[in-house]
Structure formats: C-alpha cells, structure tokens
Amino acid sequence: MEGTERTIAAFFDVDNTLIRGASSYHLARELYRRGFFRFSDIFFAARHAALYTLFGESVPRVTAVRERALATIKGHRVAEIISIGEEVYTRVLAPRIVLGTKLLLDEHLGAGHEVWLVTATPLELSEHIAARLGATGALGSRAEAHNGVYTGRLQAPFLHGRMKAEAIVQLAEARNIDTVASYAYGDSINDVPLLESVGNPVAVNPEPRLRAYARRRGWEIVTFPQSRRRLMTGLGRGLRSASLAGALWAGAMIVRSLRKQ
Description:
It is built from 11 helices and 8 strands. The chain has 261 residues and is an alpha/beta fold. The longest helix is centred in the first third of the chain and has 17 residues, at 39-55. The termini are far apart.
C-alpha cells in the first residue's frame, strides 16, 4: 500500500488490563449455572490446574483441557452464547472496567486511532466488550461453528502469548496499520509478545515479572489504583495459566485463576 497514509492503532489486552479479573470466568460461571457442564468437568480442570502448578505447562496438558472444554459447548448454538455474553457484560463486567485504562482507550479513539482488543477471551464475548466500549473491534479465541452450532473444535489457535503477536501482524497487513507508530497495553509477562509487536508498548499495572522486564526494556509503566484486584475463587491465587484459560469455555470456571501468571 505504498503511497497511502498508514493507520495508527492501539491494542489492549483485556483481563486485568481493561477489566479487573478474568472475563472468561464470569462467562463460564453463567454457563455452569445454565447446566453447560458437569461436576466431572470441574474435577478434570482442577486436576490439570494442580498438575500445572506442580510441573508447569505442557502441550499435552493444554490440549487435554482445551478439548474437554470445547466439548462442553458442542451442539450449542452460537446465538445462545452471544446472548449470555451480553448479559454477563452488562451485569458483571461493566462495573469492573478499569477506568484509567478506559481513559487511555478513549484518548486513542479521540486521536483517530483504531482500537483493538486482543485477548484469549472467546470472540463472542470479546467482540461485545469492544462494541460496548466503542473500540474498532476485537481479536479473540474463535470456536468453530457450522450452521450456527458449535462443532467442539477451535477454528484457529487461541490467542495467547505469541499468537497475539501473529494476530496483530496479520491485522496490520490487512488494514495497513503502522505497528512501529502503534501502541499496546498489557499487564502480564504473557503479554510480552503483544507488547513487542508495536513501537509503543505500555505495561498497565504489571505483575512483578512484567514490571521488571518493562524496566529493563525502558517501556512505559502506568499504574491505576485498585485495578489489579484479583477475584478469588475455589483454587486460589496461585493457580493461573493464560494458555489454559484461552482455550476454556465452561472449564474456565475452574481454571479462571490460571489465566494470568
């Protein structure tokens, strides 16, 4: 696209950057309430959460949890999940918006920049969050569906770690985005590939490892009061894994606390 003016964009991680806590957890809690999955699914995810804590992340473990979680929505209609996601946003997520990050998002919109959410959160929820915040759009994990019904498979790799960076590269090519002039916001060490994808990375209320990394790299660090309040559930603060939670739907209720270590 030589000779055309390139677009500046701002890319925002969602969980604990834009919204306090894990958005997938609140979606999964509602799915559990509506009978989408059983106690055996909870036990399965909890077992793998404990294995993650003891032995770290492994591809077979992530794959097992992902396949089990996707199986819980197989046969359900996409429209049903979208409707539940809208309800979850209005009732639960909207009050958890980090106001400081929201002001940054609004500043980018006011400057004429595109604003994209880049998150492992299911696309059905992340697109609704983006629309409600006035953002340009969202890049999220997409479950495969045929004729409006979930097949139980992922349509593409879920957005975590380097996959966020790859998604940004593809989007930049499609929309003529100048990544060197663009911005990215994240809170976790797992957001490093996202942050390194642009010329202006910003660590938002970073957890300790990202804070140390950002300082070494000379990145901007911003802190907003109370925006890193973690929502505690069953397994506690120590069980988090972004890799697992990006793949989870119903199982995210148990591995919610695995999201952002």
